Every structure is written in structure tokens, then in C-alpha cells.
Amino acid sequence: MTRVDLQPSYLLHSYAYRDTSLIVELLTREHGRMGLVARGVRGPKSRWRPLLRPFGPLLCSWMIRGELGQLTGVESGAVLPALQGDRLYSAYYMNELLLRLLRRQDSCPGVFDQYALAIGRLAAASEPDTTLRMFEKHLLQELGFGLVLEHEAGSDAPVRSDRWYRYDVEAGPRPSTGRGESDIPGSCLLALAEEAFSTGEQREYAKRLLRRVLAHHLGGEPLRSRRVMSELLTKRSSAERKESE
Fold first, then answer.
1. Closest CA to 72 of 121, 24, 130
2. Taking the CB of residue 71, how many other CB atoms lie within 10 A of it?
3. Which of 14, 48, 185, 187 fits a 20 to 30 Å CA distance from 133?
């Protein structure tokens, strides 16, 4: 039996277990993703239930033997402003990515730090799209799937801002003569490498590229949160058109 006390954590997901308990999925700094039974927290007198909410920093304690442990303590960390609208959906999207890509009990302090940084930016009302692109890029890097952005696949030839490239998920950018669906301007690859988007076009190409790469590592299975975000944007666009008519 291993005991861990006051580990920096975030709640990624929870679901009902038996009559009054929850299974909670945590992202922890030193122990990675943890699955824990939180006994009795659905009861009316639980002190932990109000704390076990996504996106707020926590200090969690547990005991574990095997894959599923038992939560033994929860304390609240810093209080962040409530996430709303696009920022809330963006945070749920990050949580789903982590649940799909992280194995339980696989230490990943870099992923934890990038998640905490992204949540802090969303809470501070930073632009959601740019925050997500940076999180996706660094998540892939921390998991060993880092993007090749500054030189061509299989060579030391630098990516040129005035050329087009077709991005090979397994190898990197290859020079392209056309503008196919998977092609991307060299200027956009370099902007993503430097994490400095100067135009909406650069952000859009970065989004397409990261979506393709993530889909590859997710096995092609779509993300539920992405579908919800797409439906929300469609409804918002329709409402805006009606208001302008």
C-alpha cells in the first residue's frame, strides 16, 4: 500500500460509484493521472464534494495498491475566476485530451505544468484559441510526439517562410508544390515554432495541423468535447445572422 499526501492535483472527470461515492480521475504533478474512489462524497454531509470540481487547483491525498486507489483527503488551492462560454468548453476539451492520451500512474510533471498554465490563461480571459494551440503543442512534446517545425523532414534544410509544405505526421514537413488539404505555409510552421501568431490565418493553419496530428495519436476516434464546441459555434453563428437580418 502506497500513501501520498497533499499532492498538487486537478480534477479531470468524475462519475458515480455505488450509492454515495465517486470515481475521480485526477491529474497530479508527480504521479500523473490517478483513478481514485472518493467514498461517501455524494452524501449530504460530505465536506469534499464542494471541492471536487474541475479546473480549480487542489491538494489531494490517497492510498493505493494496484490501479485504483482511495482518496483520503482534499484541500482547495488557489481560487480562480469561474470559466464561462468558450473558455469553459476549451477547458473541458483539454480535460478530455488528457483522459484519452495519458495512462494512469505515468508521471508527467511537464504536462501538469502546461495544464496549470493553460487553465490560468483561460481564467485570466486570454484568447482561447491561442491558449489551446500552445497547450496542444506542448502536450504532444511532453508525450514524446513533438512537432518538427523548423527543418524539413529527413534533412537539416530549414523551413522557409515563402514555401508550402505537406506535413507528414510521422516525419515532419516536406516541400509541396500544391495547396492540398494537408498543406501549410512555411510561415505558419515557423509562427507555431516561435509561438507567436501575427494573423488569424496562422492560427487557423496551426489549428488544422494540430488537429490532424492529435487525431493520429487518438486513433481517429473523435472527441466529444470538440463536437459540442462545434455545435455551439454553429448555433451562435446562426443567431448572429438572424440578428443582422
1. 24
2. 24
3. 14
Is residue 244 helix, strand or coil?
A: helix
CB 56 within 8 A of CB 75: no
Contacts of residues 51-54 at CB distance under 8 Å and 24 or more positions apart, as own/partner, are 51/75, 51/76, 52/11, 52/14, 52/22, 52/24, 53/11, 54/10, 54/11, 54/12, 54/13, 54/91, 54/92, 54/95
CA distance 145 to 224: 22
Tell me the three cell numbers of residue 95.
Answer: 480535460
* Closest to 188 (Cα-Cα) out of 174, 201, 171: 201
Q: Report the run of H or E that residue 131 belongs to, with start and end.
A: helix 128-142
Query: Residue 208: which H helix or E strand, with range?
Result: helix 200-217
Please say whether the beta carbons of 205 and 188 come within 8 A.
Answer: yes
How far apart are the C-alpha atoms of 129 and 170, rounded to whole Å?
Answer: 25
User: Helix, strand or coil for residue 235?
Assistant: helix
C-alpha cell belonging to residue 13: 472527470
Q: Which residues pair with 8 in a beta bridge?
A: 59
Q: Burial level of 149, CB count in 10 A (0-12/13-18/19+)? A: buried
| pLDDT tens readout for residues 177-227 | 777 888 999 999 999 999 999 899 999 999 999 999 999 999 877 788 766
CB of 150 within 8 A of CB of 193?
A: yes
Q: What is the pTM of this model?
A: 0.88
